[in-house]
Amino acid sequence: MAKKTIDQTEVQDKTVLMRVDFNVPLNEQNEITDDRRIRMALPSIRSVIDRGGVVILMSHLGRPTGGAGDEKFSLAPAATRLGELLDSPVHFAKDTVGEDAQAKAAGLKAGEVLVLENLRFNAGEKKGDAEFAGKLAALADVYCNDAFGTCHREDASMVAVPQAMDGKPRVVGHLVAKEIQYLSDAISNPKRPFVAILGGAKVSDKINVINNLLGICDAILIGGAMAYTFSLAQGGQVGGSLVEKDKVDLAKELLAKSNGKLHLPVDTHCGDDFGNIAGCNKKVVAAGEIPEGMEGLDIGPETAKQYAEIIKGAKTVVWNGPMGVFEKPPMDAGTRAVAEAVADSDAVSIIGGGDSAAAVEQLGFADRVSHVSTGGGASLAMLEGKAFAAVDLLDEA
C-alpha cells in the first residue's frame, strides 16, 4: 500500500495543492487553544517551500451551517498561526475557489504559502462536487494528501480533486505516509503476538473492528463501557452501567466465534454518582456483580494486572478506546495501567486517535509509544479493513 510521498516529488517552480487537517479548536475569541494539528503539518509544508515550490493549503474546520462569512469557522486564525510557526508571511484567501483565491494563487512566488478559506463554506465539498473540485484542481501542478483524519471520507478535496488532477503527481504527505506505514503494516504483516486493546462506550462503534481483528489478532482486550454489554450477554449484573441492550445478541455472537481471543474484565471499579466521581461511594466488584444504584466506571485492578501481563508479551499492540472514565480520577487507573504497560513493552505500539490519543497524552506516555494516530475515525476504519478511495487513487511508490 506504499504511496509516493511529497519528498519523492519534484516541486521546484511548481504549485502543490495540499489537503491538511487544520480543524483546530477555537475559543469564543477565535483564538486557537491547541495548535498541534498545524505543527504536525509543518514537515510536509517545509518539504515543498524549502525546495523552491509554492503551497496552497486547503482544510475544513468544524461543521459550519451559516455558509461563507461565519467567522467562528474561518481558517484565518490557522493561517496566522502557521505564519508564526514558519516565521514567514502566510497569505490567506477569503474564499476557496473565488476571485480572491484565484488572484492570490496566481501571485505566489517560490517558497510562499497560501491558506484557502474553510472548504466546508462550499456545499460542493461535502457533496464531492466535480465542478467545485475542478476549480481547486486548476490551481496547482501537484496534489498532496496530508490529512489522515479525513481519509475515510469522500469529500471533494479528498477524492474528486485528485481525480480531477489525473495525470499530475498525486502523493501523500509525511503524516499520511506514517499512518499507512504503521496501521496498514500492523494489519497486513504484524509481528506476533498481536494484541488489540479496544475500549470506549459502544460495542456498535467497534463491531466491524472486532470482527476484522478476530481473524488477525492473537488477543483482544476489552474495556470501557462496552465491556458491560458483553457482561450482560454472559448473564451478569451491570447495575446502572452504560449498556446497549439491543446489542446483547451481537455480543453473544462475537464471544461464540472468538475462540478465546476476546478477554473481558474480571473485576470492575464502580461508583454511585457519575457527576461526582471524586466524592461518590466507590468499590471494586467482580465482573457481572455490579449492584443496583452503581455503575461500572473503570476496569478493576485485577483486570489491569492481567491485561498488563498480556501486553508485556506482545510484539504488536493496537489500542483504540480508554478502559474507563480516564478524565476523572480515580477512574483513570485502568487506562493508566494499560498505557504504562504499552509504554514499557517492546512491541510496535499504535494508538488510534480520539480518546486513546488524548489519554496517552494526558497520562504522559505519548513519547514512549511507536505511533499516535492523527485520526480516530480513520484509524478505526483502517482497523476494520476498509479501503480508502482517498488513498487508493494516489500514485504508488
Automatic annotation (TrEMBL):
Q: Where does substrate bind?
A: 21-23, 37, 60-63, 120, 153
Any GO BP: glycolytic process
Locate the residues binding (2R)-3-phosphoglycerate. 37, 120, 153
Q: What class of enzyme is it?
A: transferase
Under Pfam families, the record lists:
PGK
Instruction: Summarize where ATP binds, as residue positions.
Output: 206, 296, 327, 353-356
One MF term in GO for this entry?
A: phosphoglycerate kinase activity
* E.C. no: 2.7.2.3
| Origin: domain of life | Bacteria
Q: In which pathway does it act?
A: Carbohydrate degradation; glycolysis; pyruvate from D-glyceraldehyde 3-phosphate: step 2/5
Where does this one sit in the cell?
Answer: Cytoplasm
Record's GO cellular component terms: cytosol
Cite the entry's keywords alphabetically. ATP-binding, Cytoplasm, Glycolysis, Kinase, Nucleotide-binding, Transferase
User: How would you summarize the oligomeric state and partners of this protein?
Assistant: Monomer.
Q: Which family does it belong to?
A: Belongs to the phosphoglycerate kinase family.
Q: Which PANTHER family match?
A: PHOSPHOGLYCERATE KINASE, PHOSPHOGLYCERATE KINASE 1, CHLOROPLASTIC-RELATED
Q: What name does UniProt use for this protein?
A: Phosphoglycerate kinase
